[in-house]
Write a structure and sequence with these properties.
4 domains; Beta Polymerase, domain 2; DNA polymerase, domain 1; elongated; binds zinc ion
Length: 498
């Protein structure tokens, strides 16, 4: 009899098979010995190929038990917030990018697909010989333990999260990326397209079964062989993206270079860490044409807030900076709280002096979903309000978003000419992709912002917002801050009726 300690170092996904009762410790050890380190995605592949029943001492019943356990396994993989996953993956990616022999390094799975909560962190890094890169990776200071090291696969434990690195031969990189990016529903749909032609799509590539070499790289070539354009990973959910690809109606998703400015950030005037000038300088370095400084109003729950008098003095500081940074348009804005009554937390006389007004709920105040909805509605009807920030007001991982009728909310936003935000701060990621897609379908304008509280996070948080938006099929034409500053001012003015 083996003890549990014999499997303690196996990848968590594999260990779970034992913990769920699907296999014994001996069987689990045999799966590991015969098939190598195994994530949930690998297990699915092995089951499909009947590789488990062919292991010595195994039979179809054991394989069926593994197959039956898989949906539960997916459900038990602890999801970690995107921000944390990106932070963990970034150190691995940086190390891979400057390791000899590594051609490229791309996160796969839900991270590449732009989900806000991430299951496995897996990275695909094509290399002829990854040994030197693996030597470096296992020395990284964040690595708690090396869970497994094979010739082409490395599993590391970083801050209680399992991180997998796969290094296919460069000639097979596209097929590996495609397979491990998923989603399962998307690759299943591609597999059906291949089967219609009498071909088979495997993790190693697209095989025609006629003696010709399989199509393995790049991803584009595999899609092309199936008669499709390349489909962006963020929309590979197996819903309607393959139909869109077939009919030539794939969205042209927003990218970082489309973004001309950031309309939501905080400074030391409220709960931000940095000065206005530090934020302005960082925005200039990011190549923006404009930015808006948007500190909190007096009753927000933030640790420090802007008073009406503070707003006036802040305006003077911004005026001085405008002279020193003529290449950038600096908008003086605020993020004003929508009070429980639906009124705004600055008087109209104060608000109308701002170039742009963002409105938000920061606390529920014990109200029902309908009361919260009415608060939003009151703010959106206010002519001085240009945008609703982080509309669900969730706080990852502590607080779920409000359970509102978002369909109605987005329709009201569209009707009132109020933009809704995709906020890229890791605690918000709000709207997420699914809601952003609903918002644009309702005709609402999206603003993708960093909501950054320090200069150094402006770029990274904008990127996370863009990832959410891409997952929501958002194109540059849907986005306020892809437009020149004159058009942003025009949208503000149109609503103000000036
Ligand atoms: Zn806020
Ligand atoms: Zn904010």
């Amino acid at each position: 009899m083996l003890r549990e300690s014999a499997i303690a170092d196996l990848p968590a996904d594999l260990r779970w098979l034992y913990e769920s009762g699907a296999v014994t410790i001996e069987q689990l050890a045999a799966i590991h010995a015969g098939l190598g380190p195994t994530s949930a995605a690998d297990l699915l592949t092995h089951v499909r190929r009947h590789a488990i029943q062919r292991l010595p001492g195994f039979n179809p019943d054991i394989e069926a038990a593994v197959a039956a356990a898989l949906p539960g396994l997916r459900a038990t993989i602890p999801r970690i917030p995107l921000g944390r996953a990106v932070a963990i993956a970034d150190s691995i990616l940086a190390c891979l990018h400057d390791s000899p022999g590594i051609e490229s390094a791309t996160p796969v799975g839900s991270l590449r697909r732009g989900h806000d909560m991430i299951g496995d962190i897996e990275i695909v890094a094509p290399a002829v010989d990854p040994a030197a890169a693996f030597d470096r990776l296992i020395q990284l200071p964040d690595v708690v333990r090396t869970l497994h090291r094979g010739d082409r696969r490395l599993y590391l434990l970083i801050d209680r999260v399992q991180v997998g690195v796969r290094c296919p031969m460069p000639a097979a990189a596209g097929a590996t990326l495609l397979h491990f990016t998923g989603s399962t529903a998307h690759t299943d749909a591609l597999r059906r397209l291949a089967a219609e032609r009498g071909w088979s799509l495997e993790p190693e590539g697209l095989a025609r079964g006629d003696g010709t070499p399989p199509t393995t790289d790049p991803e584009e070539a595999i899609y092309a062989a199936l008669g499709l354009p390349w489909i962006p990973p963020e929309i590979r959910e197996g819903t309607d993206e393959i139909d869109a690809a077939r009919t030539g109606s794939l969205p042209v998703l927003v990218v970082r270079s489309d973004i001309r400015g950031d309309l939501h950030m905080h400074t030391e005037w409220s709960d931000g860490r940095d000065s206005i000038e530090a934020m302005v300088r960082a925005c200039a370095a990011l190549g923006y044409e404009y930015l808006a400084i948007t500190d909190h109003s007096p009753h927000s729950a933030a640790t420090r807030n802007l008073s009406a008098d503070g707003a006036r003095r802040q305006g003077e500081e911004i005026d001085a900076l405008r002279e020193r940074y003529p290449q950038l348009t600096i908008l003086h804005g605020c993020e004003v709280d929508i009070l429980p009554t639906g009124r705004l937390d600055f008087t109209d006389r104060v608000l109308e002096r701002f170039d742009i007004v963002l409105a938000s709920l920061h606390e529920r105040a014990g109200q029902s979903a309908d009361q919260l909805f009415q608060r939003y509605l009151a703010a959106m009807r206010h002519p001085l309000v240009t945008m609703i920030t982080h509309p669900t007001n969730r706080q990852i991982p502590h607080r779920k978003g409000y359970d509102l009728d978002y369909q109605r909310l987005f329709a009201a936003a569209a009707q009132s000419g109020t933009a809704v935000e995709v906020d890229g701060a890791p605690a918000h990621l709000d709207l997420n992709g699914a809601l952003a897609r609903q918002a644009i379908a309702a005709g609402a304008t999206i603003s993708i912002d960093s909501d950054s509280h320090r200069a150094e996070t402006l770029g990274g948080q904008m990127d996370m917002g863009i990832l959410m938006a891409r997952h929501g099929w958002v194109e540059p034409r849907h986005v306020l801050n892809t437009r020149p500053i004159e058009e942003v001012r025009a949208l503000v003015a149109a609503k103000r009726g000036t």
